[in-house]
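Task: complex structure prediction.
Instruction: return structure tokens for all chains below.
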Amino acid sequence: SQTIHQWPATLVQPVGSPLSLECTVEGTSNPNLYWYRQAAGRGLQLLFYSVGIGQISSEVPQNLSASRPQDRQFILSSKKLLLSDSGFYLCAWSVLGALNSPLHFGNGTRLTVT
Amino acid sequence: GENVEQHPSTLSVQEGDSAVIKCTYSDSASNYFPWYKQELGKGPQLIIDIRSNVGEKKDQRIAVTLNKTAKHFSLHITETQPEDSAVYFCAAKGEDAGGTSYGKLTFGQGTILTVHP
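Output:
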């Protein structure tokens, strides 16, 4: 069966520090991968998606970037965190090439920028 | 782009009652409508989905109905239990773009459901 792992589960970082959140998927190949941000426990905003290694599309301009160094690895980064980057970050995957494949989410990372 | 509106934002019911959450969408090309349940501190989990060639789908105590003409779909939970308490999200997905098999999933703002014992 497929599983998705995100870490860390919680993170407290000072303003101006770098960020690296990691997500890996097991049990499937060539997935679509996504990073979402959820503010105040409501509303899911798509940040990035990837349909293959090295292929990243950004949905909204922001202080963050994403990379996909391996087929089942997706990384969310920032060089210098802002207070507004605080939130709940969710990684998700879906089946590439399958019509209307559902999203499968990880358990998220709670990021607090102080 | 697609816009999904979800109502109500909060819903409180007694155990055993039914709960209904409604969503409307704007893009008539949307063809896939999943519902997610999110428990505190966890990621959203898919609970049921419906495709545009189907009007209703049922899975035990939960059901989803879709009215493509009116562009709205609803989640129905019968015989609610305290463990149904969570945040529920609807979503709509449009046509895949550029042959990449990616079609953006647009989420509603969520409904906080509380089931009182």
